[in-house]
Amino acid sequence: MRERLRLLHAALLSGQVEIRVLPDEAFGFMHGKAGVITNGTKTAFMGSVNDTANAWSRNYELLWEDASPEGVAWVQAEFDALWNHHLAVPLARAVIDDLKRLAGRHDLTLQEWRDLLQDDLSGGGHDLKEVLAPLIEAPLYTNEMGLWPHQKAFIHQTVLAHSGPFKRARLLLADQVGLGKTLQLAVSAQIIALQGEKPVLIAVPKTLLGQWQAEMWDLLRVPAPAGTAV
Predict the structure, then answer these.
(1) 65/155 Cα distance (integer angstroms)
(2) Distance CA 148, CA 145 (A)
(3) What's the rounded mean pLDDT across residues 167-196?
(4) Quick one: 147 exposed, middle or buried, by C-beta within 10 A (0-12, 13-18, 19+)?
(5) pLDDT: which is higher, 35 or 198
(6) What is the pLDDT of residue 77?
(7) Which of the four pLDDT bands, split at 50, 70 and 90, describes residue 17?
(8) Rounded to whole angstroms, how far apart are CA atoms 17 and 103?
């Protein structure tokens, strides 16, 4: 997959492949596949065949070719209506840049991350990216805006305190309403749990149980089964 992403990234930068995006309100959800292939002569096609074992054994796939001038003209007209629509925009450069990141990323094992984190903490713990590395593919960063500076500061301080000589710490978080206390504590708990082998107990009022479970899963993809509510 990484080599395919690398090739796609190179093709998009070179101009060999061009992509435009239309919002849903333009035509609604579109799932049809069609195109015109030009190689001296022109031929049109509609449909697709997924090249997977599941598709070949269980799906009903259909690919139709039409080389008639009328068929080619009709498919071209449909394509032009979408491609030249006033709401159509080129694929964002941020998406293209992210392809490069995905193609070149290196997946760390849990032990590799622990070793890097320990090296950072032993040197003073200044490299926050090592602390937050497990979150890079979480919805918190892929779908949202990430963490605010004050949230990062608390999480960093928590990890430093917990990783001290006694491997434990007692901290009190008393931010104002709306500053993301739940997320700060949830991320801190996740990082602490990944450093060791023991689970984390979160004791919250019953009225907040659903909120905690939702944020743990929706933002961090961490399952939080409910025990006895306090």
Answers:
(1) 58
(2) 8
(3) 85
(4) buried
(5) 35
(6) 97
(7) very high
(8) 17
Which residues make Cβ contacts (< 8 Å) with residue 121, sequence separation at least 6?
Answer: 159, 160, 163
β pairing state of 62-66 and 89-90: unpaired
| Interatomic CA distance for residues 203 and 189, integer angstroms | 12
Coil vs helix vs strand at 34: strand
Nearest of 106, 111, 105, 108 to residue 194 by alpha carbon:
111
What pLDDT digit, counting tens, does each position of 65-101 carry?
Answer: 999 999 999 999 999 999 999 999 999 999 999 899 8
Most confident region among 40-44, 112-116, 191-195 by mean pLDDT: 40-44
Give me the long-range contacts of 15-19 (CB less than 8 A, separation at least 24): 18/90, 19/90, 19/91
Query: What is the model's pTM?
Result: 0.60
